[in-house]
Amino acid sequence: MTEETSVITSYHAHVYYHPETRVAAEQVRQGLGDRFEVQLGRWHDRLVGPHTRSMYQVAFANDQFDRIVPWLLLNRQGLAVLVHPNTGNAIADHTDRALWLGEKLEVNLEPLRQIG
After folding, report:
1. What structural domains and CATH numbers belong to the chain?
2. C-beta of residue 105 within 8 angstroms of C-beta of residue 16
3. Taking the model in full, what pTM does it have?
4. Which terminus in the chain has less CB density within 10 A, N or C?
């Protein structure tokens, strides 16, 4: 059984950092904001939702995927990045449908179970 990509309403990229890599995260964020049509989320120095490392979120439309993901591949400065679709199934979007650039981190599914 196949699913149609029309179920993807948008994408999120989560850029993860440690205190010692925050400057690199700031540079990646600036590059994304300067080059693409994105919504830059807040910095989360404490763990939020399913994320197991400090991060910020970058939201973008489907038509930006083929520009943003290649840029992140080349410019993530060694940071771990999770790219996932938004389909209404948060658990699958953060696991089975997730694309990892760099280190693959654990995802805490418990907060997603509570909302889904």
Report:
1. 11-115 (3.30.70.1240)
2. yes
3. 0.92
4. N
